[in-house]
Amino acid sequence: MIEISESQKELKVQQGIRKAEDRLVMAIERALNDRSSYGDLEESQFRNLVRVADTTESAEVIKNFIRYQVGRDRKWGRGKNALAAKIIHDIDDMIKGEAQAIAKNAKVEPFQPIWLELIRRYLGYGVRHLTYLRKGEL
């Protein structure tokens, strides 16, 4: 049996992440395009979420911050169809599934670092799209 080197595993992980990017972009754009699901959310508020994601190694901390924001005001929406609920669902479902598939294909464990990288990218693409929606729509 041929052993895969750590650098080969890392290359497979990076390739998997790049292949997932279109799905990440489409998911966050779909969530943000439903403007009825949230209030007057500003890019700075979304950037605060990105900062939290960049400073933690825990998906639960990210979701906790989103719930905190929902409790503070209505800008993230309320209820099961709110933007916040959609983002949490994407984190727990689509993004987690992508991370698990990448880890399995690359034969790496645990999958959580991949999951966090995908979450960070997803949220970063969200800042870009929200900026477009608020200021630059064609």
Task: Describe the fold and architecture.
The chain has 138 residues and is an all-alpha fold. The chain has one domain. Helix content is 75%, strand content 0%. It contains five helices and no strands. Helix 1 runs antiparallel to helix 4, helix 1 packs parallel to helix 5 and helix 4 packs across helix 5. The longest helix is centred in the first third of the chain and has 28 residues. The protein is elongated. The model has no long low-confidence stretch (mean pLDDT 94).
What's the total number of strands?
A: 0
Q: How far is the first residue's CA from the last residue's CA?
A: 55 Å
User: What is the 3D form?
Assistant: elongated
Radius of gyration: 16 Å
User: Overall pLDDT, averaged?
Assistant: 94
- Poorly predicted ranges (pLDDT <50, ≥5 residues)? none
Kindly name the structural category: mainly alpha
Helical run tally: 5
Helix content: over 70%
Total domains: 1
Characterize the main sheet: none
* β-strand amount: under 5%
Q: Give the topology string: H per helix, E per strand.
A: HHHHH
